[in-house]
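quick one
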Amino acid sequence: MSKAKVAVLGASGAVGREMINVLVERGMRTDEIVALGGKSAGKSIDAGDNRIEIFSAEKFDFSRVKYVLGAVSAELSRKYSPKILSGGAVYIDNSSAFRLDDGVPLVVPGINDDDALLHRGIIANPNCSTIIALTALAGINRISQINEVIAVTYQAVSGAGAEGMTELRAQTEALLRGEETVCRVFPHRIAENVIPWIGSKSEGGYTDEEMKMQNEGRKIFGRDNVTFNCTCVRVPVMRSHSIALSVFCDRSLNVREVKDAVRQTKRCLLFDDIERGEYPMPMLSSGRDEVFVGRIRNTPEGRGGIALFCCGDQLRRGAATNAVDIMELVEK
Ligand SMILES: NC(=O)c1ccc[n+]([C@@H]2O[C@H](COP(=O)([O-])OP(=O)(O)OC[C@H]3O[C@@H](n4cnc5c(N)ncnc54)[C@H](OP(=O)(O)O)[C@@H]3O)[C@@H](O)[C@H]2O)c1
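structure w/ NAP:
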């Protein structure tokens, strides 16, 4: 194997496959990418017009690469990180393992780019809903300090990995055939249903998935005096999370200045023309890197807040593309 530049740890998974797609789209040669995995070692995987072999992560010498993009569970991420760091690579991790650790930057490009440069070997990607929500709010954050965010997420099944997509497909086919459905990944049937519970029980009746937006959002904004009240809902959509957001800032905001701010935000696409039936939907943002933002309006009762709806492909913008953007920030 030639001296490669980037290893993708968990290359066969939902996020890992997208990491390889994004790297190839950004012009990286396939001989500069090493695909690593567990059970899938020895198989091959699409990389643009080519296929590349998946190698065993257990046996890999991490000193052969400059960056490792992590797309494995938090447990496996903790297991592999000492080997990655001792090999001298920069580890950009998608799991929740290190997100809140001191000395580990938690980065949403476009919000806290400079934090990436403070790394000591590990940089964490935030949770996918946090990335999508904060990217949608980046423009507002530039024109006024955000103090309060109310979020309701509509999360696609691929947020639970490749097996989440398999489960929705199998359950939908079983329902159409009039057969019993089997639940392995989600706690209830997800086909023709929505499930207002993602993750495990946390403080005050919230789930750990819901608390991530507050805990991570505060670290990314660098302030503890911002509150995020989040409700996470799983929906029978294959890919792309949607989020309804209401935000309250230091001053009242008007719709026109917020639209201008969104328009000027690099990773956002303003998609907001009610007369033409244009608003964000997961079918539009799937496979894309931009966060679609629309339905921008003032909150009622004259509080001067802003309500909006956004959609982002959580496998790309919420994971793979965010990681590659971070790598490019460090590489500059
Ligand atoms: N899905 C999302 O929307 C999303 C978004 C943001 C962040 N994340 C985070 O990203 C990470 C990956 O999620 P995912 O959805 O891509 O999961 P996934 O589809 O279940 O993929 C898991 C990956 O882990 C690999 N793996 C398992 N055991 C391994 C081992 N012993 N050594 C090396 N690799 C091993 C698997 O490879 P083998 O098949 O070869 O075993 C597979 O490639 C998780 O931490 C998740 O929380 C996911």
